[in-house]
């Protein structure tokens, strides 16, 4: 849990850094930018929890190659976290989340009680004796609460107040404030979440001021109304109020600055464009996982982390598990090289599984497209039926007209001849419409069949690639098993051993040690001194965790 919280704490800083580079004068655009950053914090946390990770290889130094290799073997083969360990980090986070959720729930309850106790005036306007300044609450059913005595205001003052509050409703500032509150609850420990909530409040007020100026009597009068509202503010609960949010002095200066250009308001297209730019960054920040790769120049580059004594060498095994015996000096170099190669094979196997997962996702997308095209081909509609109906109606009308003419005129009369020519032309036009439509249908059907065949070919190629990845994974697993057997075969017992129970923390350093099977006072003391230099890489469910294990330190025989 602690590792996950650290990861989702650092990653949103990428979005905030990119947003900080944006330099625009429009308060509405800046409010939209930081709204996307705030929503991105929640999206990154959710994505990091549910999306498959993409490892990014980070190379370690060659001098630490042996330490990393031995640590990985200790992690996956012999370390188990003690069940009595208390998850203090998770408990502290849960307590903070609970307190913030209660705080936010109380604020929502206060807002609901204000609306329920208010007196309806007209439309979305209510009167409440519990507010000192105009307040906007709600999103789908918004309510503008006016303080008692509002009916004594001048019409110009009331218009300025309602214009400002209705701009809050049009922009959806209440919903954004609620989302910022949820983000602050989830990331209560993150300074960025608190800063975003305060910054969005300031920018929302500035954006509403800019949107209200063209609709009020004058800048000076609007600033005067703002100052009067600020003087009447009482209480500290959160709401979207005209005189709350931002420094009133700064807002008055912005309002009275006639040389400042008022930025354009946000539209649906601008929101969509900004979201399209932000989504790829959120996705990368959510799925990237650092994966350590040991830099090596061959077996000669493998070093030893802990200082070795001629009298002792380590042998580590978990409590209750088969004991791993110390490595003899003549096979130590080969053992270290095999461990490094085993780590490389495990990393390659992880990459192969990720490639296989990616290919499976591509196959699912192609199967969906193929099904849609087959459905479209099966239910291909006849295009432009109105043109055919109009042509047939024209033919029927001409035939009725010709039949009426023949009752009073001869067959060679010019009017009859002209009507017959029009009928022939209409029949020809009707035939051409049918031929054109049929050709269009046939062309569309051929295009769909061609697209379907292309998708089938792509799916066959994906199946071939997936089979190759499966075979590759099986081969890597075979090599891993061979190297594990080879490493185990290189380990042999050597002389007497001092058994030491070691409890170590999440940083890998020994915290408590006690001898459970001694040989002698001198040998036991020597083994304890050597064990203090050990470092472990404990993991549980893929995350760093403390653990407890038993090590055997061989001592020379008498």
How would you describe what is shown here?
- The chain has 558 residues and is an alpha+beta fold.
- It folds into two domains: 2-285, no CATH class; 355-489.
- Helices cover 61% and strands 11% of the residues.
- It is built from 15 helices and 13 strands.
- It has helices at residues 2-10, 12-21, 27-50, 65-78, 88-117, 155-171, 173-186, 191-212, 219-231, 248-256, 268-287, 332-378, 385-408, 414-489, 521-531; strands at residues 54-60, 119-122, 125-128, 135-137, 143-147, 240-241, 288-294, 316-317, 496-504, 510-517, 539-540, 543-544, 547-555.
- The chain has a five-stranded mixed sheet, with helices on both faces. Strands 8-13-9-10 form a four-stranded antiparallel sheet, covered by helices on one side. A two-stranded parallel sheet has the order 1-7.
- A hairpin with a 2-residue loop joins strand 11 and strand 12.
- Helix 12 runs antiparallel to helix 14 (414-489).
- It is flat, with a radius of gyration of 38 Å.
- It starts with a helix and ends with a strand.
- The model is unreliable at 59-83, 234-240 and 292-331 (pLDDT under 50).
């Amino acid at each position: 849990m602690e590792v996950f919280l650290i990861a989702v704490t650092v990653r949103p800083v990428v979005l905030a850094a990119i947003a900080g580079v944006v330099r625009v004068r429009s308060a509405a655009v800046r409010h939209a930018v930081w709204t996307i950053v705030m929503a991105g914090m929640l999206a990154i946390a959710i994505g990091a929890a549910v999306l498959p990770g993409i490892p990014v290889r980070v190379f370690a130094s060659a001098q630490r190659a042996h330490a990393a290799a031995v640590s990985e073997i200790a992690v996956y083969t012999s370390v188990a976290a003690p069940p009595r360990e208390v998850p203090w980090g998770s408990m502290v986070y849960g307590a903070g989340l609970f307190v913030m959720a209660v705080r936010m729930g109380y604020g929502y309850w206060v807002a609901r009680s204000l609306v329920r106790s208010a007196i309806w005036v007209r439309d979305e306007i209510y009167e409440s004796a519990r507010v000192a300044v105009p307040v906007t609450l709600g999103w789908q059913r918004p309510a503008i609460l006016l303080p008692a005595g509002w009916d004594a205001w001048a019409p110009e003052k009331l218009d300025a107040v309602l214009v400002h509050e209705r701009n809050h409703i049009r922009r959806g500032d209440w919903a954004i404030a609620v989302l910022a509150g949820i983000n602050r609850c989830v990331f209560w420990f993150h300074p960025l979440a608190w800063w975003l909530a305060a910054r969005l409040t300031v920018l929302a007020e500035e954006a509403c001021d800019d949107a209200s100026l063209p609709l009020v009597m004058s800048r000076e009068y609007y600033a005067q109304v703002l100052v009067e509202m600020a003087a009447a503010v009482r209480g500290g609960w959160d709401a979207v109020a005209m005189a709350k949010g931002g420094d009133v002095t700064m807002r008055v200066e912005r309002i009275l600055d006639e040389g400042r250009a008022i930025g354009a308001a946000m539209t649906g297209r601008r929101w969509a464009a900004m979201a399209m730019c932000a989504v790829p960054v959120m996705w990368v920040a959510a799925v990237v996982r650092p994966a350590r790769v040991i830099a090596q120049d061959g077996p000669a580059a493998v070093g030893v982390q802990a200082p070795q004594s001629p009298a002792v060498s380590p042998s580590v095994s978990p409590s209750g598990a088969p004991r791993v015996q110390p490595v003899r000096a003549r096979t130590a170099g080969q053992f270290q090289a095999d461990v490094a190669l085993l780590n490389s094979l495990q990393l390659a196997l992880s990459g192969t599984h990720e490639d296989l997962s990616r290919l499976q996702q591509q196959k699912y997308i192609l199967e969906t497209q193929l099904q849609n095209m087959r459905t479209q081909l099966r239910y291909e509609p006849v295009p432009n039926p109105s043109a055919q109906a109009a042509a047939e109606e024209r033919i029927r009308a001409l035939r009725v007209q010709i039949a009426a003419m023949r009752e009073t005129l001869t067959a060679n009369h010019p009017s009859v001849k002209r009507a017959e020519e029009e009928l022939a032309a209409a029949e020809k036009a009707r035939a051409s419409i049918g031929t054109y439509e049929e050709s269009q249908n046939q062309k569309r059907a051929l295009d769909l069949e061609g697209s379907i065949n292309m998708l089938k070919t792509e799916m066959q190629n994906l199946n071939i690639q997936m089979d190759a990845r499966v075979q590759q994974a099986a081969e890597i697993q075979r090599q891993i098993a061979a190297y594990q057997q080879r490493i185990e075969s290189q380990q042999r017992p050597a002389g007497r051993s001092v058994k030491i129970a070691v409890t170590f923390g999440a940083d890998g350093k020994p915290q408590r040690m006690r001898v459970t099977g001694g040989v002698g006072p001198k040998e036991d003391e020597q083994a304890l001194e050597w064990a203090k230099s050990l470092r472990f890489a404990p993991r549980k469910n893929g995350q760093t965790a403390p653990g407890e294990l038993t090590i055997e330190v061989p001592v020379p025989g008498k």
